[in-house]
Each structure stands twice: as structure tokens, then as C-alpha cells.
Amino acid sequence: MEIDKLKKWMDAAHSFQSEDFWNNIFDSKQTSAAPFNPQTISDFFPKCDLFEEDNMLILEAEVPGLVRDHLNISIQQQVLTIKGEFKSLQTNRKYHIKERANRKFKKELILPYPTVSHQIKTDIKNGILMIFMPINLEEVEDIPITFNSTDPE
Prior knowledge:
The protein has 153 residues and is α+β, with helices and mostly antiparallel strands.
């Protein structure tokens, strides 16, 4: 799993180094065969921490400026999905600087354990989304691994 994250970071870093990447961002009439792909960047947003404490998985995600109504959170099997949208553009304003774009995001995380879905709780405070997911201990199974008795010498 860590290798997959590293590969995504390397792919993103590689795309940022290409001249086509920067030309595509600043040229609205770009004709390059490889258009800018925001999906690579959205894989890294929102930034999350997932940790285990007292038989519970806890996710903390950075979602500055968002409220509950802007977020959609779901779990299917052991995949947690967080979707949302930042809406900062207002058409009735005359902007002199506009660095914050309207954007949608979707992040999927594979949870290390099954959870008790009807006991999941969420909270959002100071731009941090917290999701509390009790681990379903009945479905967590330790499978012993044995070695063959014949070892090569």
C-alpha cells in the first residue's frame, strides 16, 4: 500500500516537472495531446490521518471552510469515501485576485479493518473532519501462517 502512495507521488511530481503541465495550466487554448489531469492532484486531497485507538479507527481530514452540508461520507465494504465541493467563486464580485477555485473532490481510503457501520460518528470543527469508526472485532480474524517443515539448505 505504501508503494502505491509513493508511485502516485512520483507520478504527480513527474507531471509537475513537464513543460506541458505548466503550459496547459496557463494556456486556456491548449492543444497539447496530454491535457492537465486534476485527478492526480485530487488523489492527495483532503490530507488525512487514519489511526487506531481503543478498538476504533479514527480519521482526521483537513477540509477548511466546509460544513457538514458540503460533505458526503460513505463506507462500502472497507472503502471509506469522502466527497465534497469548495464553492468560493461568487459571480456578483469583481475579483482582483482569485486563487481559490471552485472544485470538487473525492477521496477513497481502504480501511484496515471492517467497521460497525451503524455506530459510526462524525464531527467537524475548525476545518478538521473527524470520523469515528468502531472496529468490528467479530469480523477481524487472525490467520496463522505456517512454514513448510522442509527448509532449503
